[in-house]
């Protein structure tokens, strides 16, 4: 039972480069989320999706894009990496019975932009 | 606006001591949910508890207990007889009925260090 799987675990990007953080869940959850965690801070919501084909912005969406073509996958795209995007990124999924069932988190992707 | 405040940035205790982690929240919604997550040094987030706004009963799970008080907008977490393995960052989080999506508002986290 894999749960939520994120790849890669670590990545170093140069300023201006692009990359996609992958997230896959095998729990058939409708709701998926991307959060970022800056040092010494709590997690902040970047984007979320309530189902395939539906995405919406969270608290800190600038510089990111997402898509949700399937229930399982929710990739996060960084188009022009900036040092301010150095962070740990967490993907999460939730069953989506309204809200507030337990959210399951991936292991995180540590991204450094230099 | 919704907000979660964990005023204690870092706490250090000696093993077997009891420790309480504070969490104060703000929301205008009458329906909301509160969570605690643990983030050990390995980095993953581990779900500990969920409590809805209509259930003010305190909860105990082994050495862990939670005190939910709507009158003071607090949802405090106590570890009894702490152990070194309890060393981690602990996050309190909130989601409310108005969003209806389970989006979480996290506090800044409290780093707990338990020394042997």
Q: What oligomeric state do the depicted chains represent?
A: heterodimer
What percent of the residues of chain B sit in helical stretches (DSSP H or I)?
under 10%
Order of helices and strands of chain B: EEEEEEEEEEEE
Number of helices of chain A: 0
What is the first-to-last residue Cα distance of chain B?
41 Å
Helix fraction of chain A by DSSP (H/I, runs of at least 4): under 10%
The interface involving the most residues is between:
A-B, 28 and 26 residues
Account of the protein in words:
The complex is a heterodimer of chains A (114) and B (116). With 114 residues, chain A is mainly beta. Chain A contains no helices and 11 strands. The termini of chain A are far apart. The mean pLDDT of chain B is 92. With 116 residues, chain B is mainly β. Chain B contains no helices and 12 strands. In chain B, 0% of the residues lie in helices and 53% in strands. In chain B, strand 10 (88-96) and strand 11 form a beta hairpin. The radius of gyration of chain B is 14 Å and the shape is globular.
At a glance:
Chain A has 114 residues and is mainly β. Chain A has strands spanning 4-7, 10-13, 19-25, 31-37, 43-51, 54-57, 64-66, 76-78, 87-94, 104-105, 109-113. Chain B is mainly β and 116 residues long.
Please give a handful of descriptors for the protein shown:
heterodimer; A: 114 residues; mainly beta; 4-stranded antiparallel beta sheet; 11 strands; B: 116 residues
Layout: helices, strands, pairs:
The complex is a heterodimer of chains A (114) and B (116).
Chain A: E1 4-7, E2 10-13, E3 19-25, E4 31-37, E5 43-51, E6 54-57, E7 64-66, E8 76-78, E9 87-94, E10 104-105, E11 109-113
Parallel strand pairs in A: 2-11
Antiparallel strand pairs in A: 1-3, 3-8, 4-5, 4-9, 5-6, 7-8, 9-10, 9-11
Chain B: E1 3-5, E2 10-14, E3 19-21, E4 24-26, E5 32-39, E6 46-52, E7 59-61, E8 64-69, E9 74-79, E10 88-96, E11 105-106, E12 110-115
Parallel strand pairs in B: 2-12
Antiparallel strand pairs in B: 1-4, 3-9, 5-6, 5-10, 7-8, 8-9, 10-11, 10-12
């Amino acid at each position: 039972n894999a749960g939520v799987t994120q790849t890669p675990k670590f990545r170093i990007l140069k300023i201006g480069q692009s990359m996609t953080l992958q997230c896959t869940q095998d729990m058939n959850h409708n709701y998926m989320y991307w959060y970022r965690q800056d040092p010494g801070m709590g997690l902040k919501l970047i984007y979320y999706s309530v189902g395939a084909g539906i995405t919406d912005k969270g608290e800190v969406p600038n510089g990111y894009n997402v898509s949700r073509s399937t229930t399982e996958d929710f990739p996060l795209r960084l188009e022009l990496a900036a040092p301010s995007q150095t962070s740990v990124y967490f993907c999460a999924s939730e069953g989506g019975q309204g809200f507030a069932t337990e959210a399951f988190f991936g292991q995180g992707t540590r991204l450094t932009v230099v | 606006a919704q907000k979660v405040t964990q005023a204690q940035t870092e706490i250090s205790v000696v093993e077997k001591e009891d420790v309480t982690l504070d969490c104060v929240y703000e929301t205008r919604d009458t329906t909301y949910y509160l969570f605690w997550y643990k983030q050990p040094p390995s980095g993953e987030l581990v779900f500990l508890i969920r409590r809805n706004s209509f259930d003010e009963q305190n909860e105990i799970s082994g050495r862990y207990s939670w005190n939910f008080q709507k009158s003071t907008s607090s949802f405090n977490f106590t570890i009894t007889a702490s152990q070194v393995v309890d060393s981690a960052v602990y996050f309190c989080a909130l989601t409310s009925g108005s969003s209806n999506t389970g989006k979480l508002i996290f506090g800044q986290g409290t780093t707990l260090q338990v020394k042997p």
